[in-house]
Design brief:
single chain; mainly alpha; 360 residues; ABC transporter involved in vitamin B12 uptake, BtuC
C-alpha cells in the first residue's frame, strides 16, 4: 500500500504530464465535423421550410411564392402564403423541435432507448384535456383546445412524478415509467368512456387525435411559443448533467450532479415541450422516438450534441412529412401524424438492425 504522501506525489506528477500528442487536435476535428453537420442540417431545414411554404392544394409558381413571401401585396396568393402556409410551417418547426427534444430528454432521464414523449402520460393528459373541452364545455376551435390540452398535460406530468416519488426521496427512472404507464392506462379508459357515450365529442376529437398541422393559425403559434422556448432552454442547460446521470445515479452524485433536481427539471422540460406540441398539433408519433436515435447514430451519446441535432432533425422529419402528405395526397392531403408513422417506423427498424439501441 502506498502512503498518503506517495499517492499525493504521484497525483501531482500525473497532473504535470503533458497531454498525449494529437489528442487535442482529434477532439477539435471531431467537434468541427459535428459543427459542419449542424450547418448542413440547418441548411436542409431552411430548404424544407421553403418547400412547405411553396407546396399546397393550390399550385402557385415558386417565383410568385418567393415574391409575396417578402412583399405581401394583399392578393389571394399573398393571403394563402401569409395566412395559411407560413403559420402552418412555423407551427411545424416548433412542434418538431419540441417533440425531438422531449424525446431525447425522455430517453436520457429514463435511460430507456424505447422511451418517447408520451411515456410519462403527457400525450394522454393533453388528449384528456381536449376530451373534457369538447364533451363538457362545447369548445370546437383549435385555439380553444390548446389551453385545455396543455393543462391536461401538466396535470398528468405532476401526477406521474408524485406517484413515481411516493415513499422515496427521489423518483427513479423505473418508478417514473411504471407511474407513467399506470396514469396512461387510467386516462385512456376515461377518454374512451366519454367518447363512446358522446358521439358528437368523438366526431370532433377524431380530427384532432390523428395529428395535423392544417387549419392552425398564428394564434396557436403565439400560444405555444413561450412554452417551447422555456423547455428548449431548460433542456439544453440540463444536457451536461444528463451525461453524468447516463452512468448511473451514484456516479452522477459523485460527479457533483444533484440527481433529484435534474430529474425534476427534466420532467418539467418534457411537460413544457411535449405538452405544447401535443396541444397544438395533436399526438404525433415516432418523431420523439426516432430522431434521438438518429442523432446518437451521427454524433454518439453526448447529450449536448444529441439535443443540438434533435432540435434540427426533428423539424426536418415533421415538416418534410407534412410536405410529403400534401404532395402524395393531392388534390387533398394526408395528415402529418399518418405520414410520420409511415416514414418513422421503417427508419426505426433500420436503426434497430444496424446497431443495438443502447444509451451509452
Amino acid at each position: 500500500m502506498l502512503s498518503v504522501e506517495t499517492r499525493a506525489k504521484v497525483g501531482r506528477d500525473a497532473e504535470e504530464l503533458p497531454a498525449p500528442r494529437g489528442r487535442g487536435a482529434a477532439v477539435a476535428a471531431v467537434a468541427a465535423v459535428r459543427s459542419v453537420g449542424l450547418l448542413v442540417a440547418l441548411a436542409a431545414l431552411v430548404v424544407i421550410a421553403l418547400l412547405s411554404v411553396w407546396s399546397g392544394t393550390r399550385d402557385i409558381p415558386f417565383t410568385s411564392t418567393w415574391g409575396v413571401l417578402w412583399n405581401p401585396d394583399g392578393t389571394q396568393t399573398s393571403v394563402i402564403i401569409h395566412d395559411y402556409r407560413i403559420p402552418r410551417t412555423v407551427l411545424g418547426l416548433l412542434v418538431g423541435v419540441a417533440l425531438g427534444l422531449s424525446g431525447a430528454l425522455m430517453q436520457a432521464l429514463t435511460r430507456n432507448p424505447l422511451a418517447d414523449p408520451g411515456l410519462l402520460g403527457v400525450s394522454l393528459g393533453a388528449s384528456t384535456g381536449v376530451v373534457v373541452a369538447i364533451a363538457f364545455l362545447g369548445i370546437g376551435s383549435a385555439l380553444g383546445y390548446v389551453w385545455f390540452a396543455f393543462v391536461g398535460a401538466a396535470v398528468a406530468s405532476v401526477v406521474v412524478f408524485l406517484l413515481g416519488s411516493a415513499g422515496r426521496k427521489l423518483a427513479t427512472p423505473d418508478r417514473l415509467v411504471v407511474a407513467g404507464a399506470s396514469v396512461t392506462a387510467v386516462l385512456y379508459a376515461f377518454n374512451s368512456a366519454i367518447l363512446l357515450l358522446n358521439p358528437r365529442a368523438f366526431n370532433q376529437f377524431r380530427h384532432w387525435t390523428v395529428g395535423a398541422l392544417a387549419g392552425r393559425r398564428m394564434d396557436v403559434v403565439w400560444v405555444i411559443l413561450p412554452f417551447v422556448v422555456a423547455g428548449l432552454v431548460l433542456a439544453l442547460l440540463l444536457a451536461p448533467s444528463l451525461n453524468a446521470l447516463a452512468m448511473g445515479d451514484q456516479l452522477g452524485r459523485a460527479l457533483g450532479v444533484n440527481v433529484g433536481r435534474t430529474r425534476i427539471l427534466g420532467v418539467i422540460a418534457v411537460m413544457l415541450l411535449c405538452g405544447a406540441a401535443t396541444a397544438a398539433a395533436g399526438p404525433i408519433g415516432f418523431v420523439g422516438l426516432v430522431v434521438p436515435h438518429v442523432a446518437r447514430f451521427l454524433v454518439g451519446p453526448d447529450q449536448r450534441w444529441v439535443m443540438a441535432y434533435s432540435v434540427l432533425l426533428a423539424p426536418i422529419l415533421l415538416v418534410g412529412s407534412d410536405v410529403l402528405g400534401r404532395v402524395v395526397g393531392a388534390p387533398g392531403e394526408i395528415q402529418v401524424g399518418i405520414v410520420t408513422a409511415f416514414v418513422g417506423a421503417p427508419l426505426f427498424l433500420v436503426l434497430c438492425r444496424r446497431r443495438k439501441l443502447v444509451m451509452l
